[in-house]
Specification:
Blueprint: E1 3-4, E2 20-21, H1 27-30, E3 54-58, E4 62-66, E5 74-75, E6 79-81, E7 84-86, H2 126-129, E8 145-149, E9 155-159, E10 162-163, E11 193-194, E12 205-210, E13 213-218, E14 225-227, E15 245-247, E16 249-250, E17 260-266, E18 269-274, E19 277-278, E20 280-282, E21 299-301, E22 303-306, E23 315-318, E24 323-327, E25 335-339, H3 357-364, H4 368-374, E26 391-396, E27 409-416, E28 419-420, E29 439-441, E30 447-451, E31 453-456
Parallel strand pairs: 1-27
Antiparallel strand pairs: 2-23, 3-4, 5-11, 6-7, 8-9, 9-10, 12-13, 13-22, 14-21, 15-20, 16-18, 17-18, 18-19, 23-24, 24-31, 25-30, 26-27, 27-28, 29-30
Helix pairs in contact: 3-4
């Protein structure tokens, strides 16, 4: 049994903010999530796989490949950083080895190479964090699945030419805690990417990972929308409606599957529909991946699937910078901590099982107590539950920031994708501000804090990792 301390009491002087409670009874706040009883799951195109592999439709990242135990498979594509590149090259042996790297690679200016990395006595090798997927004896290649030889001569499965790994951060079948399909800047490090089958969508569309789900866009990456005024597989948008909305055209001869159908607007003029709802683009969208059209009553962005709502007590908060963020019950924005070390392996340091040296340096000059004051954990009852598997209650050792062991004095906090979430002390008296966004190195993308963005008017709708 874990003992609980009272280090997470609410900040004095903070009043309830004008924040929207997340509930199906509040459509404006609930629009970023789908109901737990929703059947919506992203369709995918089936393809041949070697024995022992499967497809799991994960809650957040959609369909992913997994091994026989349900562990998600990842790739590590080569990516350029400020002073070089690291990752795996297509059709080449893995660069993730069993060597424990002890010094920085110097890829992130202004920091030089050959600086000693922290916590060398417990630092893992790349393969300890990212076990390579090893084929069984006699395994045969099929489709996009191939077998490559590692630098040590051991065979390894690859998909699409890239070596495959599992993640030690994934504890249950369907977990995707090791990486993400969301886009990230070069300053965010070389992030591992979950691998999966192609989505079941026509070639005129793409699916983009946003912070709340799998957003459907057209081939030019502009959002598509549906309208409450339409009937199933019937468009009622005519005349003046077409001054604002453009039906998404469909070809004459298509195979209707995966929930995709064709609506005939007039002889020879077809329109795409998804799950029975005709699709449109918004004529006044000024940027890709937009939510602007959904500001008009009755119109909605389209997702192949959305995330489930966060735990009770979280809210949606308008922010002065433009957009909306996830917030606590007092309207204080929620923050995520990002961290990749500067080794060639680009190991994540953003979870409580990794070194805490980087986080403590940023938020407290090495002092855990100062860190807790500047970026307090979001408290949770030890027995609190969430309908979303992405949210959990985590027991943290307050003296180290690591996950607490049984019998240790611990604080219980909310975690998202197995990483604690935080508020920022500088926001306490000013609901609607995100003053902690970008706190850290490289505007928080490399080693620092980013607001949990649900909608950003000026940038892409993701975590801006």
């Amino acid at each position: 049994m874990l003992a609980t301390t009272a280090l997470l009491s609410g900040a004095p002087g903070v009043t309830e903010a004008e924040a929207a409670i997340i509930s199906p009874d509040n459509p404006e706040a609930f629009k970023y999530w789908q109901s737990p009883d929703s059947p919506d799951r992203e369709p995918y195109i089936e393809e041949p796989m070697p024995p022992g592999f499967q497809v799991i439709v994960s809650q957040f990242e959609g369909p992913v490949f997994a091994d026989a135990e349900g562990r998600t498979l990842y790739k590590w594509p080569l990516r350029a950083l400020r002073n070089g590149a690291t990752g795996d090259r297509e059709e080449k042996p893995s660069n993730c080895t069993n060597e424990v790297l002890k010094t920085s690679a110097g890829m992130m200016s202004p920091y030089p190479a050959d600086l000693l990395l922290p916590d060398l006595d417990t630092r893992p090798s790349c393969t300890e964090v990212w076990p390579p997927v090893i084929p069984s004896e006699g395994a045969e290649e099929v489709g996009g699945w191939t077998i490559i030889e590692r630098q040590d001569g051991v065979p390894q499965w690859a998909y699409g030419g890239y070596p495959l790994y599992t993640s030690v951060l994934d504890k249950q079948p369907g977990d995707v805690n090791g990486g993400t399909k969301m886009s990230s800047s070069n300053d965010g490090g070389v992030v591992r990417v979950p691998v999966g089958p192609s989505p079941g969508i026509p070639p005129d569309f793409e699916v983009i990972q946003s912070s709340t789900g799998r957003l459907l866009v057209n081939k030019d990456k502009y959002s598509v929308y549906t309208w409450d005024g339409d009937a199933p597989n019937t468009s009622n948008c005519h005349a003046d409606c077409l001054l604002t909305w453009t039906p998404v055209p469909a070809p004459q001869n298509v195979v209707e599957r995966y929930g995709w159908t064709v609506v005939e607007r007039s002889p020879g003029i077809n329109q795409w529909a998804f799950r029975g709802k005709p699709l449109y683009t918004y004529n006044h969208d000024r940027r890709t991946q937009s939510f602007w059209g959904a500001d008009i009553e009755g119109w909605h962005n389209v997702y192949t699937q959305r995330d489930l709502p966060p735990p009770e007590g979280f809210t949606v908060q308008d922010v002065e910078a433009g957009g909306q963020v996830l917030a606590d019950s007092k309207g204080r924005p929620i923050y995520l901590y990002n961290c990749r070390d500067d080794s060639l392996a680009q190991l994540a340091c953003d979870n409580p099982d990794s070194t805490q040296a980087y986080r403590l340096a940023i938020c407290g000059a090495g002092d855990q107590a100062v860190c807790r004051k500047n970026f307090p954990y979001v408290p949770a009852a030890p027995d609190a539950k969430s309908v979303s598997r992405l949210w959990s209650v985590m027991a943290i050792d307050p003296d180290t920031g690591h996950r607490a062991s049984a019998g240790q004095t611990a604080i219980h906090v909310w975690a998202y994708r197995d990483r604690p979430v935080y508020t920022y002390s500088g926001d306490e008296s000013r609901p609607g501000m995100t003053l902690g966004d970008g706190y850290g190195e490289f505007t928080g993308k490399r080693n620092g804090f980013k607001a949990f963005v649900l909608r950003d008017i000026f940038q892409r709708n993701n975590f801006r990792r």
